[in-house]
């Protein structure tokens, strides 16, 4: 028996999509490749480098505090995506699954998740500042704005929570 959309929850599908984005494009291997082989002055190169924003890493020459903050940012991005997908009511109020409200709820959840994950982790980096935290939140929101459509597509057609 094949799984159909009636078995797919919107928050679950969006969270899995976010996890895949973070694991694949936030990996040290992809981040290094994007930095070394793309031109940030072109639209394609800029987007490929933006995909690496939630970069996580095993080791670095940075302080341990900064490495933990980067890894925590990637974890928080996925966790907050799940939370916001569950909390955003757009798809719960929609009469039919697969509507634009479901798409925009998924997209918006990723924007909020990126902004808050960056804001929280900017405060635990070495030498934190309010300006740095606000700039990091802007970077997270920009990441969510340009990649969140993937989460929006993943949530289309899924049901919201328990039936």
Strand-helix topology:
Layout: H1 10-25, H2 28-37, H3 43-50, H4 64-87, H5 90-93, H6 100-122, H7 130-155
Helix pairs in contact: 1-4, 1-7, 4-6, 6-7
Cα-to-Cα separation, first versus last residue: 20 Å
> Average pLDDT across residues?
87
Largest sheet: none
Number of helices: 7
Strand content: under 5%
Return the domain count: 1
The helix-strand sequence is: HHHHHHH
Could you name the ranges where pLDDT drops below 50 across 5 or more consecutive residues?
Answer: 1-5
- What's the helical proportion of residues? 55-70%
The radius of gyration computed from the alpha-carbon positions, rounded to a whole number of angstroms, is: 17 Å
Shape from CA axes? globular
DSSP summary, beta strand count: 0
Instruction: Classify the secondary structure makeup into a structural class.
Output: mainly alpha
Quaternary state reads single chain
Keywords: Membrane, Transmembrane, Transmembrane helix
Transmembrane segments: 12-31, 67-88, 100-120, 140-159
Q: What's a quick, concise take on this entry?
A:
The chain crosses the membrane at residues 12-31, 67-88, 100-120, 140-159. The protein is mainly α. The chain has one domain (9-155).
Describe this structure in words.
The chain starts with 9 loop residues before the first helix and ends in an 8-residue tail after the last helix. The chain is built from 7 helices and no strands. The N terminus is likely disordered. It has one domain. The chain is mainly α and 163 residues long.
Name some characteristics of this structure.
globular, 163 residues, disordered N terminus, mainly alpha
């Amino acid at each position: 028996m094949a799984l159909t959309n009636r078995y797919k929850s919107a928050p679950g599908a969006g969270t899995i999509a976010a996890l895949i984005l973070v694991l694949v494009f936030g990996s040290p291997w992809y981040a290094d490749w994007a930095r070394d082989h793309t031109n940030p002055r072109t639209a394609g190169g800029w987007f490929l480098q933006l995909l690496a924003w939630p970069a996580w890493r095993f080791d670095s020459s940075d302080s341990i505090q900064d490495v933990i903050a980067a890894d925590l940012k990637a974890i928080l991005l996925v966790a907050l995506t799940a939370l916001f997908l569950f909390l955003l009511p757009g798809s719960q109020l929609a009469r039919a699954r697969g509507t634009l409200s479901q798409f925009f709820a998924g997209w918006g959840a990723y924007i909020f998740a990126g902004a808050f994950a960056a804001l929280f982790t900017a405060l635990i980096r070495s030498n934190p500042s309010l300006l740095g935290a606000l700039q990091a939140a802007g970077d997270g929101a920009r990441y969510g704005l340009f990649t969140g459509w993937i989460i929006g597509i993943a949530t289309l057609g899924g049901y919201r929570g328990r039936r």
